[in-house]
Amino acid sequence: MILYHGSNIVVDKPDLKYSRKNLDFGMGFYTTTIEDQAKKWSERFVAKDLPGIISIYEIDDEKINNSNTLSFETYSGEWLDFIVDCRSGKDTLDYDVIIGGIANDKVFNTCELYLKKMITKSQALRRLRYEKPNLQVCLKNQEYIDKNLIYKDYIKL
User: Fold this and answer.
1) Per-residue pLDDT of the chain (157 residues; tens, 9 = 90+)
2) pLDDT at position 130, please?
3) Euclidean distance between CA atoms 48 and 55, whole angstroms
4) Which of 3, 18, 32, 7 is nearest to 102 (CA)?
5) Which of 1, 30, 52, 58 has the highest CB neighbour number within 10 Å of its CB?
6) pTM given for the model
7) What is the Cα–Cα distance from 57 to 103, expressed in whole angstroms?
8) What is the pLDDT of residue 64?
9) Number of helices and strands in the chain (H, E)
10) Over the range 7-30, which residues count as b (16 or more CB within 10 Å of their CB) and which as e?
11) What is the CA radius of gyration of the chain?
């Protein structure tokens, strides 16, 4: 599997000490299988007159299949609850990899409404059903990253 990471620097050796809290899947190294999505992540930096860099990695599908992986196939009630917990600082689960949809600004607004009990879970899920397909692969374990994620190259925008 090929993974992409959008940033303003080349990340040839991902280090979780630089990850931030309260993200979709908690602290971790965020990648995607969708190159255009990584390009959009990098373009945020270009807009600030910084370099836009897409780092490219390879990881064996078997390594993911045989790891402690949590995968959300769709925007589901479980996904919504998990995102809300992680964004609220309740990242207590111990996974090597978490795979699922992104809570972009529109999705996050829906999550906020749900968290504040202004909409029901079913209303939130109805809103999320129309989101453009996307995918994030969050690597949460430094030892797992060091052993399995292979840096290949980078693209400068």
Assistant:
1) 999 999 999 999 999 999 988 888 999 999 999 999 999 999 999 999 999 999 999 999 999 989 999 999 988 889 988 988 998 888 877 899 999 988 776 777 888 888 899 999 989 888 876 667 789 999 999 999 999 999 999 999 9
2) 61
3) 19
4) 32
5) 30
6) 0.89
7) 23
8) 93
9) 6, 7
10) bbebbeebeeeebeeebbbbbbbb
11) 16
Would you say the C-alpha torsion 119, 123, 124, 130 has a positive or negative sign? Answer: negative
Residues 6+ apart with CB under 8 A from 122: none
Sign of the Cα pseudo-torsion (72, 76, 78, 80, in order): positive
The residues pairing with 156 across neighbouring beta strands, listed in sequence order, are 53
Calpha distance 114→11 (Å, rounded): 35
Q: Using the structure block, give the residue that is written with the tokens 């925008």.
A: 157
| Terminal Cα-to-Cα distance of the chain (whole angstroms) | 22
Look up residue 130 and give its two tokens. 């129309």
> Measuring CA to CA, which residue among 11, 51, 50 is closest to residue 30?
11
List all residues 6 or more positions away from 107 whose beta carbon is below 8 Å from its beta carbon. 75, 101, 128, 131
99 bridge partner residues: 71, 137
Alpha-carbon distance 20 to 16, whole Å?
A: 9
- Number of C-alpha atoms within 13 angstroms, CB side, residue 45? 17
